[in-house]
Automatic annotation (TrEMBL):
The active site is at K105. Transmembrane segments: none annotated. This is Orotidine 5'-phosphate decarboxylase. It catalyses: orotidine 5'-phosphate + H(+) = UMP + CO2. Its EC number is 4.1.1.23.
Length: 305
């Protein structure tokens, strides 16, 4: 799967991923009105609005982008109805040839991680049968519980030819509270980076590991150090756009081969129609605004690397 992701990035010339984080507040009134007229102002109505919104954005952008990253929290807030749309979105994106990174940020004691890994990446066995659950291609994982929280994910990734992005240095303001703490004189995120690189050695693709890392675009100095610590690790870089990360800061996240990083934007793409420069599209043409925002993002990032 990491080789497939890299092929798509190279063929499209687009080291980017579109985050499908459909908060109701970003969904145009016209989409919500239609969904609510059909299913009511209910959880079903909200889920229908999210689905129609996602589908239009995927239809408008899938030929430009290698991957999408649906953030499960945005779906979970609507309970079972939201989770059904999460699954429907994963399936639809895969049909369109996109790689799907499930942003689920799981990680627990070993036996519980095993169930998460099976549910999101692998197959669950029921008697004589086995079934895929959400069936993403990659998931995001939290390493805070240590190796026994990660090993079950790596095991399922090996069985299923799938991958992970493990949190190393997150993009948010307070990420330093714990992640930057010194342990024997070195920041914790460096130690986690070393661990991610060593976990990755056990599951290599051609040039890069199936075990990737998450490093926020908002900490480029740390990104530079982590790039060196994890030379064969693909880095998922959130924080560009809405959180203030700039293309000019992103070069250190890439290797000399021009690969090694994939930059995420969620609100910057899916809610482009609300942003300066894209108002001319108006609410109805929100998906066209997203397409233009993808084109602009690709140009912006390529100018920096
Ligand atoms: O794992 C992530 O994707 C992630 C890690 C991180 O350090 N920071 C971060 O913003 N994210 C996710 O990336 C997305 C960023 O969304 P935007 O700020 O709208 O582009 C959200 O889905 C976050 O949950």
């Amino acid at each position: 799967m990491i080789n497939k992701l890299i092929n798509r990035i190279e063929n499209l010339g687009a080291p980017i991923v579109v985050g499908l984080d459909p908060m109701l507040g970003y969904i145009p009134e016209c989409v919500k009105a239609k969904a609510f007229a059909e299913k009511g102002e209910t959880l079903e109505g909200a889920a229908e609005a999210i689905w129609q919104f996602n589908k239009a954005i995927v239809d408008a952008t899938h030929d430009l982008i290698p991957a999408v990253k649906p953030q499960i929290a945005m779906y979970e807030q609507f309970g079972i109805e939201g989770l059904k749309v999460f699954k429907q979105t994963v399936e639809y994106c895969k049909e369109k040839g996109l790689i799907v990174i499930g942003d689920v940020k799981r990680g627990d004691i070993g036996s519980t991680s095993e169930a998460y890994a099976v549910g999101h990446l692998g197959k669950v066995t029921v008697g004589q049968n086995s079934f895929y659950g959400f069936d993403e291609d990659f998931v995001t994982v939290n390493p805070y519980l240590g190796s026994d929280g990660i090993d079950p994910f790596i095991k399922v990734c090996k069985e299923e030819n799938k991958g992970l992005f493990i949190l190393v240095k997150t993009s948010n303001k307070s990420s330093g509270e714990f992640q930057d703490q010194l342990v024997n004189g070195r920041p914790l995120y460096e130690l986690v980076g070393e661990k991610v690189a060593s976990w990755g050695e056990s599951h290599m693709g051609d040039a890069y590991s199936y075990v990737g890392a998450v490093v926020g675009a908002t900490y480029p100095e740390m990104g530079k150090i982590l790039r060196k610590i994890m030379p064969k690790t693909y880095i998922l870089v959130p924080g560009y756009g809405a959180q203030g990360g700039k293309a000019a800061d992103l070069a250190p996240y890439f290797n000399k081969d021009g690969l090694g990083a994939i930059i995420n934007s969620s609100r910057g793409i899916i809610a482009a129609y609300k942003q300066p420069g894209y108002e001319k599209y108006g609410e109805e043409a929100y998906a066209d605004a997203s397409r233009q925002a993808v084109i602009d993002m690709i140009t912006d990032i390529k100018s920096a690397i």
